[in-house]
Amino acid sequence: MNQVELKTHYSAAELAAMQLTGIPTSKVGIRDRAERECWPVHNVTGIGGTRKQYMPPASIMAQIRTKAAAQLAATVQAPSLPSAPQQLPLLETEAQALTADARRGVLNALELLMQRSGYARKKAATVLVDMARVGAANPQLVAMLKMARDGRGRKSLDGLPSPRSVLRFVEYQQAGSLVPKKREADMSVPAWAPCFLSHYQRPEKPTVEHAYHAFLQEWGAQQPLAKLPSISQVRRFLRKVGQVSRHVGRMGERELKSLRPFIRRDFDSLLPGDVYSADGHAFDAEIQHPLHGRPFRPEITTMVDIATRKAVGWSVSLAESALAVLDALRDACLKNGVPAVLYVDNGSGYKNQMMLDSATGFMSRLGIEMVNSLPYNSQARGVIERLHHTIWVKAAKTLPGYIGKDMDRQARLANFKLSRQAIRQAGQSGSTATMPLLAWADFVQFCEQQVADYNNRPHRSLPRISDPDTGRKRHMTPNEKWALHVAQGFEAHLVSDDEARPLFRPQLLRTVRRCEIELLGNRYFATALEEFHSEQLRIGYDIHDPARVWVYDADGRFICTAELDANKRDYVPQSAIQRAKTKRAQGRERLLQNKLDEVRQELHGRPALEQMETVSIPGVMVLDRSQLAARAQALHQEPAKPRAATTDSSWQVPTTPEARWQAWQALMAIDESDMADEKAKKWRHTYQATAEFRTYQRKTA
User: Fold this and answer.
1) What is the rounded distance in angstroms from the CA atom of residue 116 to the CA atom of residue 503?
2) Strand 10-11's sheet: what is its strand order?
3) Pairing mode, if any, of strands 558-564 and 614-617?
4) What is this structure's pTM?
5) Mean of the pLDDT values across residues 267-286?
6) What's the DSSP call for residue 571?
């Protein structure tokens, strides 16, 4: 359809193309009618000659204007919206923004209709709404009219605004705002709010009703003439307060971190071995203790590679300690390489001399930089914290000894009674307890299998790939991500077994005294240290074997090996692990004894000691404090009675190595209670700590 233009004169061809009602539809017919009715005419000269243009009567001109308006309503398009900025300058809702855009589009259509039809604004608004109502307008224009309507006005059956509302849009535009008004909540803070919040924002986390009753008493005393708010007003006020501001005081700073913004760290640029993260976790299930078989919760230390999310090393121990961390670090370096950065918390297992000493610490010897997270900021170590739940919490739930916090209390108590009943029956009968708990050796194998399953399971933080077996999309596994880096040229800095033995021995600085070195309560001796008297050297030791230590100079050059009691120190050695076990057992025994004494005192009672000036023993004596002090001084001044001389032992230590070995074998065949010579008893024990004994022992093994 040809576009209708509004002008004063039209040619016969233009009038025929408009297909108006009441006039001919051919050029000849229109010329005959124009000449018959004497329409005003003027000649227009152009290319091809001169042609006549006629001025139609008013009735025909009205049809032309109506047809032009209909064409305009059918072709109006929605205005192009500007790209949304990152932050809106006004706090508008989405509905308000859409309504303002629709009103802007309606006003554009109204202006275009006025230009083409020559109607006044009021007439154009009426025509625009009528055409939308009868279906002659573009559906897009109809939708804009419905969206532009203010819902607060009178109800409209068809959802279209009235012409008066369209004219009101023009006034809104001239005022500078097409955004409809929206009723907002009153955000002013009432005078009683600080007093109520002082009772509500407490660490005890009282309920609204509890805090309201306490608030009424205080506010009534402070403002006796003020009107008290109802509890509904208080609840409405609390709904207006932000989530974080509402919980200030009810939560501490550490707990509020879970509500406040955080930083999400990206690891796409990391390579395997760039950053390892480690942490300890108390296992949520009881197993059998490897020494006495009683139920206990082991400590698991895990190391994860941040770039691939692979569990690179782990260790299990009786309690959290630096030795457990060392064992996990050794496992990670042997299997997957030495990391550049070790990201850990501030626990004693990491911040200690064995790890951080500039001369003997493992970090300096392995070339690792230890980075500690902020205190009480476990969110910064979210990777290792999440790994605990993924591996160990889920694994603990598969064991019969699970005692996690989400375990049903009745079921947990039943498992507890079952294991303790087995221990009690075994103690009464003297037999071995049979408990439904995992043994230590089986638990170690169980942990190894859990780590292997995790490394071969898809991880949602890794990229998605097509499964080679099923063809379906899934996330990569940690092992696949590690293998991808290896295929791209990555090579881990691995440590061989021969390098690991001296490398993972803890070292301490000790001073040499006459070829002797004191370490962990033991003494080691080597004649090669004679020229190093009074010098401080680096001493490496094996946490499992106390028989010898390795001596290095300040630059790390190996000097010699010092043997335990090589100059015949007279006691049985203890390894570092054994000393730690003994110390831990003594501490637990002391705590239990103190608790037992407290329970007995509460049961029987004990009066406080009173100061006594005299001591009276009926029928014997009565002494005051000065007489007691004089008698004690006299006892100290009495000369000690000479002891009876001990008889010389008839047994002598053989002079040759072969004879000493045979003598030791002969003494071992005799029960110690049947040996009368004390010197032989003592020599039988001390001979086992000598290098000569170990040499013969290896020969006969």
Assistant:
1) 92
2) 10-11, 49-54, 41-46
3) unpaired
4) 0.52
5) 89
6) S
